[in-house]
Specification:
4-stranded parallel sheet; alpha/beta; about 150 residues
């Protein structure tokens, strides 16, 4: 983080502007997606809490699936798709999502990914773009990502 902060400060001090575009575009989950029974995938981040939360969301008519706790497939997928400089929770979260999408269990035209926000300033900005990039690389451009 110190090196990133130093690079940003150096760019600001030298009036250097890096052209670019946003890493991800937020795609909101719509009423039409609910009617079409999209599967909403959520990585497991807190087993007791997410199990309770998922029941409430399902009772509201959404097809939510909390991905299984971390296993070898999730770790391997995370290591394939995430830079090894990323934090381990980021690797696991992206790994859970990518392992699920690669499993063949889901219709990639009717799947959405939801990411919870933990309140940790490092998590959401890092994990959300990290989870979108691998799906774009695989050509899964119709996959939805909504932070």
């Amino acid at each position: 983080m110190r090196s990133l902060k130093a690079a940003i400060e150096e760019r600001d001090a030298n009036d250097i502007h890096v052209p670019g575009k946003a890493l991800t575009k937020r795609v909101p989950f719509t009423k039409e997606m609910k009617k079409e029974n999209y599967t909403i995938l959520s990585p497991q981040m807190s087993p007791i809490h997410f199990d309770l939360l998922s029941e409430g969301i399902r009772a509201s008519g959404y097809n939510l699936e909390i991905l299984p706790s971390v296993d070898d497939k999730a770790v391997d997928a995370g290591l394939r798709y995430v830079n090894n400089d990323a934090c381990y929770p980021s690797i696991l979260t992206v790994g859970q999502i990518m392992a699920a999408l690669e499993s063949g269990k889901y219709d990639l035209d009717k799947v959405a990914v939801i990411m919870s926000q933990t309140g940790d300033p490092a998590g959401p900005p890092t994990i959300s773009p990290s989870s979108a990039r691998p799906s774009r690389r695989r050509g899964w451009n119709k996959s939805r990502s909504s932070p």
